[in-house]
Amino acid sequence: MTSRRWMLLTFATIMTVAGISAAISYAVDPYGLWRGPAGRKLTVYDFERKAKFLLSRRYVPANFDGLIIGPSCSANWDVPTLAGARIYNESLPGGSVAEEQIVVNQALPKGHYRLVVVVLVPTMTSHHDVNEGLDTTKNVEALGSFHVYDNEVASALHAWHIRFHKSNAAPDGQVELPYRKNLKLPIPPNFFQIDPVALEDYRDLVQSLRSRGATIVYVVPPIYEPILQHNKPAFETYLYTVRQLLPPAPVIDLNSAEYTALRSDPDNYIDSVHLTPQGAVAVNALLQKLVPAAIASGT
Amino acid sequence: MNFNSFSYILLFLPIVFIACNLARRLPIPKAPQICILLASIVFYSWSKPSHLAYLLGSVVVNWQIAHLIGDAAQPRRKRYLQAGLVLNLGFLCTLKYANFFLSNIPYLVHHHFQAPDLAFPLGISFFTLSQIMYLVDCYEELMPPSSLFDHATFVSFFPYVISGPISRARRILHQFPSLNGAVGPDADTLARAMYLFTLGLIKKVVFADAFSKAADYGFGNIANLSTFEAWCFASAFALQMYFDFSGYSDMAIASAMFLGIEVPRNFDGPYRATSIIEFWQRWHITLTSFITTYIYTPLLQSFGRVTLATSAIVTLIAMTLAGLWHGPNWTFVIFGAIHGTGLAVNQYWRKKKMPRMPKPVGWLLTFALVDIAFVFFRSPNLRTAGLFLSRSFVGAKMFGTGNLLKMNGIGPMLVVLALSQVAGIVAVSCGKSSDQLSHEFKPTWSSYAATAAYALISVLYLNSNVAKPFLYFAF
């Protein structure tokens, strides 16, 4: 082979394979970026951070007018509608408010949100780390990257009823949490630390949503009762501190005395903060009732 | 602009290549060189246009000094050279080391000084060394002072201006007439450049960034590392450094090759070295060459009588300076001093004709020393380096592997990173160096398949947003 032919062949092969791969990803469009996303139901099977970031660009604004903002403890809350708003659950497993801010910021320019449920839990404000290159994610990744191929393969396997044990974000953003039951998992010592940068991000996020006309409702997620009792002063101090520093809005505190029965049932928990599907269903039912009431009363 | 970015690979380099070839057909003298100079200016000012003034200032001042040296007779010539060296070192020290020196004064006089944070122009450590070599070569009449146009093109040449390979003017300037000729590089050279570029790209985006993930994890969790893990993470950083910097150098050499300029090689399978002397003959070869020619030899000559002791002292001084060249931190000084000590011991061993070690033992000792030195290189301060090394000898456990299992995170990326790391270890232990591979390159079906596969895999990694900036950009 001559060098000239070698170069042409190499270049043509690279361009052809890359082009075909990009065309397939364009046609499948797992994040609703390239085709009209309204009315589509997009499920993602892995890389929830990247997926929720890219879904928030067009898919979320086109299909939802309410959001849940939180970490993993609210990721499996499944409330398709709340107070008349169609809800997308933007919660990120292991996410900080810095990451939530990045993801929600993608959904703001093209969307209008009537209701936003903001989860008040210490993990959100303990740090402001950004993982998996979330802050530098680009649309072009949806044309060929590990997360796109992974989701495309999982999607194809799912269509053939083959399912790997993976976390799975439903079309409304609800994520199946991995089920590793450990109710004795202690709260780490730095769980309650408040990162000032993260808190500032939280305040900015809430203010930004409110300035765009969203009604904010804070929800304090239920903590497994024995763990809550063991750390009650710390939880109360945390809640008091963040409520002082965040913009005022109605608060639904699922750690208050009237929900003790929910928190005391071990079947409702995977660990001290994460709910089992049964626990999530119970919380969903409570939210359906409590959120409209909180909005109506304003407290 | 990074070599491992789409803007460089798909836009900048192809545009410069096409423009340069079109310029050869224009009736304007030196049109391809004008093209390259303009491209270099755009490349250098891409991220911080304000830093261009430092580069251009350095070019003009050194060009003027070279002409003063060229026109004057002794002893004035020597004074001009000395002034040039002082200016270049002063320029480097002021912008790079001022606060390092000032922050250490309180240890001596109990008074705290702080200079304003000055700009740290990209590539200053590299282009200042090129300027020093240029002045010395002009002084020693190894080459005549060049025109301002040639000098500016040589110093600012985009493939090496930011992170090397550190090139000598006389090795580059004589290629300019052929650069400006009517015929560009032939198809064989271009095919070889394409092959070398993809080798460099895969080294950086697949291997270096996979080892970076491991090294970052290890250096972020020092407190609970076992002894075995500490050595594994130190080795991961050593491999990250190699793949990162040699990948960058391969891409730089290939980029220059596309334009018909040959720049010196920088790496030659350093982790196959069985002694520390051999390691430095294979690692950052252009820096080694600078240290030997412009620091070690003149210092040794200044001692008058050459003995083993003077040679050891000079080696230690030269390598400590080379360490400091990397950055204003005591960790880099210790990095250089460790290598200096290793080289001095190695020289003593050879001169005294002490028994040769079996090759595996020599390799193991060399790699262990390189690992220890790189712990200082990677650590933000001496305390962290001390803590890491204490784990390397007295870890929390001897053979714990819990951190190794966690270093790549979870999910599909765990598999991707683990495979990349295994492939990297295989490539470094069994494969040929990219310099060898590019020299042996032939346009065959296997090289075609390999190049296409390397390029496609690299593009996948690049588009997955897992790529990191080059380590040597910081220097």
Describe the structure.
Chain A has helices at 3-28, 48-63, 97-107, 122-125, 146-159, 196-211, 225-230, 232-245, 260-264, 277-297, and strands spanning 66-69, 81-82, 85-89, 115-119, 215-220, 251-253. Chain A is an alpha/beta fold. Chain A has a single domain, classed as SGNH hydrolase (Rossmann fold, 3-Layer(aba) Sandwich). In chain A, strand 2 and strand 3 form a beta hairpin. Chain A is elongated. Chain B has 475 residues and is mainly alpha-helical. Chain B has 2 domains: 6-184, no CATH class; 189-274 and 357-474, no CATH class. Classes of the chains: A alpha/beta (299), B mainly alpha (475). The A-B interface holds A 1-7, 9-11, 13-14, 17-18, 46-47, 133, 136-138, 140-141, 143-147, 150 and B 186-188, 190-191, 194, 411-413, 416, 443-445, 447-448, 451-452, 455-456, 459-460, 463-466.
Short description:
Chain A has 299 residues and is an alpha/beta fold. Helices cover 44% and strands 8% of the residues of chain A. Chain A has one domain: Rossmann fold.
CA radius of gyration of chain A is: 21 Å
Shape of chain B: globular
Helical segment count of chain A: 10
Oligomeric organization of the protein chains: heterodimer
The average pLDDT value of chain A, as a whole number, equals 87
**Strand segment tally of chain B:** 0
SS strand fraction of chain B: under 5%
How much helix is in the residues of chain B?
A: over 70%
The helix-and-strand class of chain A reads alpha/beta
- What is the fourth-level CATH superfamily of chain A? SGNH hydrolase
Determine the most extensive contact between two protein chains. A-B, 28 and 25 residues
Order of strands across the biggest sheet of chain A?
Answer: 2-3-1-4-5-6
How do the helices and strands follow one another from N- to C-terminus of chain A? HHEEEHEHHHEHHEHH
Work out the count of structural domains of chain A.
1
Mean pLDDT of chain B: 88
Query: What does the overall shape of chain A look like?
Result: elongated
Number of distinct helices of chain B: 21
